[in-house]
Amino acid sequence: MHILLITSVLLVLLVYAQQTPPSTSIALNHPQIPYNWLTLAFVGSNDYQPRPHYHSSDKEHFKELCRRLDGLNPTQQALCAENPFSIPFVARGVREAIRECESKFKFERWNCSSRDEVTETRHGKFQDILGKTLRSSNKEAAFLNAIMSASIVHSITKGCNTGNLTDCGCDSKPGMQRYQAESESAMSRDQFSWGGCSDNVPYGIRYARRFLDDWEQQQFEETKNVAHLVRRHNNFVGREAIAQNIRRQCRCHGVSGSCEFKTCWLQMQKFSQVSDLLKKRYDHFAVQVTRKANKRLRRKERTERKIPLRGNEMAYVHRSPSYCERNMTAGILGTAGRECIHNSYSSESCDLLCCGRGYNTRLEIRQTQCECKFVWCCEVKCKTCTEEVAVHTCK
Q1: 197-218 pLDDT per residue, tens
Q2: Which of the listed CATH numbers 3.40.140.10, 3.30.540.10, 3.40.640.10, 3.30.2460.20 matches domain 335-394?
């Protein structure tokens, strides 16, 4: 099974590389073009069939494939060459994070929909998924940094536990040490032992830190640009959203399922739950920081500057625009044409989403299932009904 997966991964990287010119990344050729590793969203498709003549020992071949992956900075290029099998899992995490972002912001003015944007420079056009927002250092950029960081931890950890990444496996430390106090108190209430396959979150965190933070730290030391510290902090917020919310899962043992004894392991939350938590932190725990920083970020509010940022607080430098009007230079699509709800008082209301411009209404005929009945055994049968629905879209 491992051989099949390895050959699949190599073929994916090869096919992607063959679709690009036989030179290195456009961002590496032209330092003026910013790196955007979210282009990995295009890597790792399962549509390709494995071919057996690629072997895991072909390191030079791997390095060449990594050099051709657009958007990776030099640190990420090196990590790719060192561990190329992890890249499809990073790509999978990116795609999942984008889906969650679009879901969480579906009814807000900024709806995470700039994923297909292209940036044009004097060196040519390049794919720039959410890049303009990522580089804006506002609240939305903070959320993107956090959820992308969390997605890497989550996806890499899953790869470890399923045996699809050879450099890691299940977490071998019972309770991961930080949970020892909890486990000892639990032992007094019910009998259990650590077993099964605990999620190897520490490995996922180490990988995500290397993939994202090392470059930001290096760039901050060279440029003193606070944006790099902000991104590094929000990366940490994303990792903590997973690390602080690991749960104990148990399986019962005993006569006739009596649960006389339990075998327990530690498991991450579903990624949809992680994204829910990060959305709450975006809504309620985002802090504006000063544009200058020495070694750590400082809150912009003078009376709070001595209070260090917490691990559950996202950081941003610039206030967000209204996102009402289209501005492709800034990666803003505007809200014209967006569907809204006219009798709502939430963010999806026509008053808020349409920014006071008003809305158009049209009638649509939609088919729905109705008059559903349970038929013994075991089926639910429904009729197809048509209904006229009023659809409101922003002017």
Answers
A1: 889 999 999 999 999 999 999 9
A2: 3.30.2460.20
